[in-house]
Fold each of these.
Amino acid sequence: MAETKSRKSIRMMVLVSSDPVSLERGAGEVFRKFQEEIEAFDLSEEVSLTTIADVGCREDVPLVIVYPDAAVYGPVGMDDVHILVEEHLKKGRVVPGLLAVMHGPLPEIAWLNSRKGSLPAQKRIVLERAGLVNPESLEDYVVYDGYKALGKALTQMTPAEVIAEVDKAGLQGRGGAGFPTGRKWSFVVSAPGEPKYVICNADESEPGTFKDRLILEGDPFSIVEAMTIAGYAVGAHEGYIYIRGEYPLAYKRLENAIHMAEAQNLLGEHIFGTQFNFHIHLHAGAGAYICGEETALIESIEGKRGMPRARPPYPPTFGLFGKPTVVNNVETLANVPPIIRNGADWYHQFGSPKSVGTKVYTILGNVNFTGLIEVPMGITLREVIDIYGKGMKNGARLKLVQTGGSSGSIVPASLQDTPMDFESWRSAGASLGSGALLICDEHTCVVDLAKVLMQFFRFECCGKCTPCRVGTQRSYDIVSRISEGKASLDELEVLQKLGEHMTEVSNCGLGQTASTAVRDILKHFRAEVEEHITSHNCPVGVCPVAELTPAQYLV
Amino acid sequence: MNQEVKELDIVSVVEKAIEEHGTRRDAVIPVLSEVNRAFGFIPAEALPEIRRRIHEPDEGVFLADSHLYSVASFYQMFSLHPLGRHVVRFCESAPCHVQGGRQVIKALQDELGIKPGETSADKKWSLIMTSCLGICGVGPVFIVDEDVIGNVTPDQVHEILARYQ
């Protein structure tokens, strides 16, 4: 297949961004206009034109990137296309007037620069192809090393060797918990019961996290390949991708990838001419944060309310339809083909000894550049903010960072030099979580933030177990009262106790982590919370603290 | 988006969905999604129609109307009652909130004249609060029907909504 796509005559590549925002702003029309103009200038033989998914969110979409110059144009309108084709594609001259303003290292360009060795740290394994290939083309995927790993696994390795390689690589789950992937797979192998299942958890709904969406939109074939390898390793012949209902574009691209792989016998019966069969079902969710919890996700596939099961038994022994099931996050799976292709030793050169590999982070909040980066484990927050975030917006001071979405820790500015890997953060009492970094400046009120977070949890709580159902609502009530200046200092103790109880006795991760942010806020910013209560004052001026009547001052 | 819901429509929509997704247990949510998409909500009459086709005790698949109702009422993307012609879904999660969402939701409520969870009297608008939509890089974000609108400031709200008839 790789041979069918000759690149010899192609001297230029034009990439048109096709993320949802670009499409909404007319990227489709721009793409068709490029087709017409390239045809009109008789350049079809020399110029390849493809769409790419976004790999970082920008305001000036649709973007058009022209390689090999790596010129980034944006926003490109219909009127610009003719000039771009004539000047750049035909005459080879970059059009300075239409270049996008570079606020910071755009991921595509960062990738290109890091190859040249000029930009620090960015290292792409998981997002290697995202933004560079047409996500709807199997040929593109194959040209960029696609299906090499599956071929190697099926023809040169036994299932046990595949698991041993993943285990040796030290791959840890990227969904937040960091459980060793190789070990999870071997549990499934040794669990009695047939058939076995592989599930890709693509129900990414942790607020602030969209890494999985970008992997699925930008490189859908890698997940299809990785699941097939996982199926081979654990002895499963059926897999499910549970993708959240809010990701229609990712759904479409995965659907297309599955069909194309089936058509080329890379999925289905007798893959690569071997005796191995594997089928993938694509299953869209219907909007529920809790379905990211693996047993809730399994319940949801089975057509029930997404309520987490009592554990043990865990999914490796009692999963989908009661059978042994491996559930892996999208980013975890995306690491599998490169590990199989290049070996565990290659993988060990990235990251720190105890947390191997890279990590995809989403940078959000009050920084100059928001978006997505993939860097080796162990980078610090200060580096992330200064290098990739291009500093704080409006020169404001960093107040706190919330890591890993709503259930993540609140990290005060003082921790910004602690290396971000699973180990170091665990010992600092924080969790890395899903990779979202919500960076908040001094204009953020911690009480207001806590209120938004508790609102989220009381809304998303499934209602199955009492500590979480009642605890999230009670915590929200108290935080609301604090923000209105109606609470008493005693209630802070109640709030703290509620959190401890939820952490100890809730049935699943949602309840166990719902109070993390409140706990951290009370630990690091207690004085600010108390000021709401004692002085009826929100230092940042965000909360609707009730003004005191003169009589109340006397009480 | 809402059409007159006739019984005949319900039968044909359910049948088409079953044809596509099958009658295994894992078809329940995809079939409900198709019905929700076709009518803009899940009409109560659709539940027995779905149950009749999937409930198959001999195959070990048990389904009751109450079970379908419990599922349909659990997921946020399903609605059990008709919504307005246009549905605004506003992301109320922390990343959008920190980036200015607080002011945008105020502007939305003022402009639409309804509160979260309500549908306007002329049945034109529904306003729904939703958790993170995964487009946080361009927050604050809301979705009108299927159009994603990011980097919203309060003063843009009027002009954005005016695009919808």
Amino acid sequence: MVFSRRPRTDEFEKAAIPHLSELYRTAARLLGDSAKAEDVVQETYLQAWRSFDRFESGTNCRAWLFKILVNTVHHHRRKGFNLRLVKDSEEVLQQAVAPAAPIPEQITEGEILRALDGLPVDYRAAVLLADVEEFSYKEIAGLLDVPIGTVMSRLSRGRRLLRDRLAELARSYGIGQEGGR
Amino acid sequence: MRCEQMRENLDAYLSRELPFENRREIARHLENCPECAADLAARTRLRQQLRAAVRATSVPSGLETKVRGAVRAEAVRPRTGLWAVAAAAAIVIIMTGVGILRKQASPEDAILQKTSGPLAAVLKVGLIDHLHCAVFRKYPRTPAPPRQLSAELGPQFAELAPLIQAKLPGGSYIIEAHHCTARGRLYTHFILEDGGKLVSLILTPRQSGEAMGGSIYQTGVDRFQVVGFESHSYLVYVISDMDATGNLQLSAGLAPTVRLYLAAHTG
């Protein structure tokens, strides 16, 4: 067996540090706590560094780092409280196929983030990875270690719930109360 | 009805996840249906707003410096701290040969290099994953919820977790189970806590040239005890920092369950 030499830190930093802000914002939204997100990001980089000699250059460094981040977030959440997702209840299924509701155009960033943070964590992860970080469904399946069908259903329900939460907000602004779709 | 079907696909359309034919069909529909076009515009706007909101999160000042510092500290640490530990450890080597420690080796490699010889090579397959996953990645030492285990293990191995739990001595439990990859090889890995000792039960599909026949093999490498056997196209390992007798007893307790399970669940 051939043992590779430890790669140099500057090579690692050059490849990995540019993704710091994406990793941090994803961790912050998944954990809902900026201090924990900092810890998780730091742990992610340490894990990545420890396995950097097995990372094949030329492959997708960003996806590799996100994969480590997702696992680290997962372990971090388990330390305190098991928040493994809500069941795919009938209620959620019904909501997922209900007609679309209007969303206020004057919505603020704070309101969007509150609605996002209110989603069950597995749905939130799928929505963040697809709609914010723009990973493909196939890549997300790899990151979350779930079949692609599961990614699609989490996305469909997550996006739907997000729209519903924002539509509730719209109603509170007096938009769409005349029964419009 | 047609509009409803279209709308179910609008998000996938936006994400460019639909095959060309479906994309074209939707594009044609959108040209003639102002309602669906308005719906697409609303979804596009929401996605842009969401992206902007999340991306507006600023990275705390100092995080980058902290991360760089932690990585650099880690980069120098194993060569000093762990070398001292490795030198001080009572090294038990039952298998043939003693690998020579090389300066550039990682702490994992430093231990792995202490095994050599053809049979040691096959036992090393399991040790690689134990070191990579259980020892150098720290997991919280609390019992994992059964549903968590099933979810991590997937259908093929989900039912093995409760069977293993049932065979463990009192006070021992599974803290983690998952599929993992180390050095390009896929493992199914149960991490157990047994009276303060960290134990791995590891399964990996046997590759050509790897064979242990019908025997159970045991070796000690550094502070680890490794038991390995072959079962139904898998190599199975029990590795821990228990003493040799303890590790062998635990293995003997688990082996029949694993063998029966693999017999029933592998083709």
